[in-house]
Amino acid sequence: MSSKKVKSTDDASSSHGGGSGGESVIADHGRGRSTCGYCKSPSRSSISHGLSAETLTVSDYQALIDRGWRRSGCYLYKHEMDKTCCPPYTIRLKASDFVPSKEQQRVSRRLERFLDGKLDVQPSEGTEHKVATSEEKNKVEPLMDELSKIIDQAVQRCIQSGEFPAKMQIPKASVKKVFCAGKKKLAERTEQLLYTSNIAFLIAAAYKRVQTSDRGEINNAEENRLSPEIISEMLLTAMSKVEETPGIYIKVCKGHINFLSASKDRDVVPHDNISRGANSTGEGETVQENHRTRKLKLEMRLKRSSFDPEEHELYKRYQLRVHNDKPGHVVESSYRRFLVDSPLIYVKPSGDEKAPPCGFGSFHQQYRVDGRLIAVGVVDILPRCLSSVYLFWDPDYAFLSLGKYSAMQEINWVRENQVLCPTLQYYYLGYYIHSCSKMTYKAAYRPSELLCPLRFQWVPFEAARSLLDKKPYVILSDITDSQKQCSSLPHASETLAEPRTSEHEDMEQGETNDHFMGCSDDEDEDEDEDEDEDDDDDEEMESEDSHNESDPGSEDSDINNILIGLYGSQYRYKDLRQMMNPVGRKQLEPMLRSYRKVVDDELSERMVYEIR
């Protein structure tokens, strides 16, 4: 009896949106074990099912990730959630519902300040930047010590001249470095502001204490006679008679004594190398105000996934410095396999099919500051979502929190492109593992949802949190089912009005409570206790000879319509089995049942199961 060949699956794929122009061809690797990168278990406690894809339509991959699959290059994997040590739940966010937290808003403002030149950063190693630490801010420079001595000499002059009471306890002057964030508070004009001292405020406080101890109280006139503003003017006059400090001129503003750089491009009229300040009535105020901080330019460019030497160099720096990888693990071949190679068939935007301007497929989003590549986000754009694959960034720009910033940019991208492609609504953040501290940031993008590992329904994260606190594997859909049951139960007053009449009713109530707590028979099975900013599941997998065992009583009809690729032709299994001997069928059929179970009935009949 002759077998029946099957034509290309273009038509089947195109009916699902974004899937026209090709077919999905995959090979099944079955169950595999590997060491866990999350709990660092020494045993091979991470258990997953693996597929490799020669080609994959975007609609088929959308269906797969909605069943808990992810990809690393051309390798697809899905964890056996009830058996693996660290069950990873697929997490997503509806972009239109996203509400940024205060911390996320601060990240955006920080980057804007950096671009405007207002962030406290210091250059290091050429063009690299870093945030000034508190230790650096408090570091005493020789010039600061010299300026402190000049102020102390000016204070002594004022005491000797009788301007300050001799019995005042005046502390030693302290000069501090001024960083960008504090400049506006300390001066009316912020050009080249280097150092400042608040000694005038300390002297004013000391004067007030002396007056109060002498008279018991002090009136406003006495208090204003030595206000911080007046004291700073007095010290400025006294300092003009002290030794010169080349390259520095002094101004006072609102009681602060400020030391500025006397750069060559400024028109400064010296008064013994000290120009009078903003509170002064003197004629030394001739500083030009036309200087403005140069703004940096941030560019974001979305391009099709391809090898870029500049991106690879950035990836190497990121992996070596942030994740402490060994140099042998960041070679070009491994980088290509992980982040460049993709089985997704690119779909061009067309007038007949609503799609974003870039189309559907795998892309790299580049972030550049003044032309310098500082981050790359690897993403898949699918019919219903943008799926984040990985992000790597320049370690010198860690202070910008580029992981959080890029996530918000990707969420905004979905929002903007939903107008052109109404089906494009979600942002997928990859996997979420509740016990892994490095993944908690994903739940901060609210309101997020987790995928139920059994029924593949989406459940609000906030509803699942309390149960995940208790156990790693939870059938999340039980939560929503129990909530529906609770909402349909009689009101509490009605329940009290009708006493129970049988033991059977007691048992039913107990079962309802168990469901509300997320308990089920499936969770009583033994559980073994299986990174990066996103999911790098590039561990070596140890394949097991046996596939997941299905019910021996399952009907052959379950696998009859699986699409098989063999020697360049395609067959439904019900036709191919007629060509096979009993031994071959006995070997293949358990694998097909396992495959059908993990990808679902519809996909097993649409994707090509390649036999090699």
Automatic annotation (TrEMBL):
<comment type="function">
    <text>Involved in the post-translational conjugation of arginine to the N-terminal aspartate or glutamate of a protein. This arginylation is required for degradation of the protein via the ubiquitin pathway.</text>
</comment>
<feature type="compositionally biased region" description="Acidic residues">
    <location>
        <begin position="520"/>
        <end position="543"/>
    </location>
</feature>
<dbReference type="Pfam" id="PF04377">
    <property type="entry name" value="ATE_C"/>
</dbReference>
<dbReference type="Pfam" id="PF04376">
    <property type="entry name" value="ATE_N"/>
</dbReference>
<dbReference type="InterPro" id="IPR007471">
    <property type="entry name" value="N-end_Aminoacyl_Trfase_N"/>
</dbReference>
<keyword id="KW-0012">Acyltransferase</keyword>
<keyword id="KW-0808">Transferase</keyword>
<dbReference type="InterPro" id="IPR016181">
    <property type="entry name" value="Acyl_CoA_acyltransferase"/>
</dbReference>
<dbReference type="InterPro" id="IPR007472">
    <property type="entry name" value="N-end_Aminoacyl_Trfase_C"/>
</dbReference>
<feature type="domain" description="N-end aminoacyl transferase N-terminal">
    <location>
        <begin position="34"/>
        <end position="106"/>
    </location>
</feature>
<dbReference type="GO" id="GO:0005737">
    <property type="term" value="C:cytoplasm"/>
</dbReference>
<protein>
    <recommendedName>
        <fullName>Arginyl-tRNA--protein transferase</fullName>
        <ecNumber>2.3.2.8</ecNumber>
    </recommendedName>
</protein>
<feature type="region of interest" description="Disordered">
    <location>
        <begin position="486"/>
        <end position="560"/>
    </location>
</feature>
<comment type="similarity">
    <text>Belongs to the R-transferase family.</text>
</comment>
<dbReference type="InterPro" id="IPR017137">
    <property type="entry name" value="Arg-tRNA-P_Trfase_1_euk"/>
</dbReference>
<feature type="region of interest" description="Disordered">
    <location>
        <begin position="1"/>
        <end position="29"/>
    </location>
</feature>
<feature type="region of interest" description="Disordered">
    <location>
        <begin position="270"/>
        <end position="292"/>
    </location>
</feature>
<dbReference type="GO" id="GO:0004057">
    <property type="term" value="F:arginyl-tRNA--protein transferase activity"/>
</dbReference>
<dbReference type="InterPro" id="IPR030700">
    <property type="entry name" value="N-end_Aminoacyl_Trfase"/>
</dbReference>
<feature type="domain" description="N-end rule aminoacyl transferase C-terminal">
    <location>
        <begin position="310"/>
        <end position="452"/>
    </location>
</feature>
<keyword id="KW-0833">Ubl conjugation pathway</keyword>
